[in-house]
Amino acid sequence: MIDGQTGPAERPAAGRRSWVLLLLLIPFVGTLYPDWYARVQPSLYGIPFFIWYQFAMVLVGVLVTLAVYLVQWGARDWRS
After folding, report:
1. Residue 25 domain-assigned?
2. DSSP letters along the chain, please?
3. What is the pLDDT of residue 13?
4. 24, part of any domain
5. What integer pLDDT is reported at residue 15 of this predicted model?
6. pLDDT value, residue 2
7. What's the domain count of the chain?
């Protein structure tokens, strides 16, 4: 590159660290079959289990996606 400019981030080699993509299945499988979590008890501050479990799966999905991104591309890209 000219004048110390950096190009786009290089993609990880195919197969290398691709196992980490399987982590993206965690929130999907966690909400796949509603009969697993379609109940009222235990409630959390009066919120039925069905509702707060789904909110928790959204947060899990965000954290898993962040973890996969950091493993695939590295923390250096995330901070810039």
Report:
1. no
2. -GGG---SPPPPPTTTTGGGGGGGHHHHHHTS-GGGT---PSPBTTB-HHHHHHHHHHHHHHHHHHHHHHHHH-HHHHH-
3. 54
4. no
5. 57
6. 56
7. 1
